[in-house]
Amino acid sequence: MKFSVGYQLAEAGEESFVEIVREFREHVAEVYFAWVGQPSGRSPIGGREGEVDPQAVERFEADLAELRRLGVKLDLLFNSNCYGGEGISKALEARVVGTIERAAAVAGGVETVTTTSPAVAHVVHKHFPSVRTRASVNLRIGTVEAMKHLAHLFDAYHVQRDYNRDLDRLRTLKQWADGAGKTLSILLNSGCLRFCAAQTFHDNLVAHETAVARSDNLDDFLPYACWTLLRDRANWPLVLQATWVRPEDLHHYDGLFDVGKLATRLHQRPHAVIRAYAQRRFRGNLLDLMEPGYSPAFAPWVIDNERIPGDFFDHVSACDGQCHRCDYCAAVLEQALRKIDV
Fold first, then answer.
1. What CA–CA distance (Å, rounded) separates 7 from 19?
2. pLDDT at 342
3. What domains can you pick out in the chain, each with its CATH number?
4. pLDDT higher than 90, residue 44
5. Following DSSP, what letter does each residue of 77-95 receive, concatenated?
6. What is the distance between the alpha carbons of residues 100 and 79, in angstroms, rounded to a whole number?
7. pLDDT at 319
8. Residue 32 CB partners (closer than 8 Å, separation 6+)
9. Phi first, then psi: what are they for 163, rounded to 5°?
10. According to DSSP H, which parts of 24-111 are helical?
11. Mean pLDDT of 42-49
């Protein structure tokens, strides 16, 4: 398995993300990115809409050109969960077309567009038939039926991360995808809670981050279910019950996925994440591999990856998913927790 890694725009004078890709070039299949200032599944890079720094645009476009010279594939994100009143508009079509054309001018084009929007997928197929469309993980496509629903629009799918540890389901999805000429990808290091009830709400807030930042918001409400729950230590096992895959367990996915996505766009240590998965081993705080990572919620405790039992994956991939009736992850967590003296 090779990796799709999320681009970070370095500050002026800092080492470019390109250098990380260069170091791990043999392990990196593609780099995914949103365009400067555009909404996506994460905060806009280079400034919010209407406030983009021209120097950031210059650095960004130079990085794209250099990534192209390295020979990695480019995956352009239009994975905002909502495009508001422009969701099926000609204005959105013009933005998509203009962005892909700009990528062609700067870096010779993109191989893939990943999106949450069926309308965007339609636009890409209409104007750029050679560019592959990939369904975003945020579409939560986890059944053959769901893939069929959008098969006329998507060439590839990120599988619903909530099923990452269900190997039988993944094999079923793979069998159908192979027969239909589609490809699958998996998000490996998401810290998001499994079947998070607040995901749609959270993703919509991110999509409208520019407007949200300008609003007079509630000062007594935390909009992130995960961070709210993790204030209570009794909920910490939720992290072990989540969707991430340890680097040591990647071999279980060989043959199922050619490309694994690593969430590094906002990660504070993208180099460490890529290295761990490339080497298929990690010594350190398991929370440091995830995005979002919950190290501040656990501090001064860490989850020592080397204290995770060797048969952990065998257990969590064979369970019935009824976590409220099981204490396995709670027991493993107590074994793996280690207190760090500050």
1. 11
2. 67
3. 2-218+242-283 (3.20.20.120)
4. no
5. EE--S--GGGTT-HHHHHH
6. 14
7. 87
8. 4, 5, 6, 7, 74, 75, 76, 77, 112, 114, 261, 265
9. -105, 15
10. 54-70, 90-107
11. 76
DSSP assignment of 144-177, as one string? HHHHHHTTTT-SEEEBPGGGTT-HHHHHHHHHHH
Phi, then psi, of 257 in degrees rounded to 5: -135, 130
Is the pLDDT at 304 greater than 90? The verdict is: yes
Residue 316 near residue 329, CB atoms below 8 Å = yes
Q: What is the mean pLDDT of the chain?
A: 95
Q: Where are the alpha helices (DSSP H) in the chain?
A: 17-23, 54-70, 90-107, 118-127, 144-149, 167-180, 199-207, 209-213, 225-229, 237-240, 270-279, 295-298, 312-316, 328-336
DSSP 322: -
* CB neighbours of residue 196 within 10 Å: 20
**Omega before 292 cis (within 30°)?**
yes
User: 326 near 238, Cβ under 8 Å?
Assistant: no
Using a pLDDT cut of 90, give the percent of the chain over it: 87
Q: How many CB atoms lie within 10 A of CB 49?
A: 12
Chain Cα centroid distance, residue 150:
20
- DSSP state at residue 305: G
Name the amino acid, one letter, at 277.
Y
Cβ atoms of 135 and 77 within 8 Å: the answer is: no
Q: Which residues fall within 8 angstroms of residue 186, CB to CB, at 6 or more apart?
A: 158, 159, 161, 164, 170, 245, 253, 256, 257, 260, 261
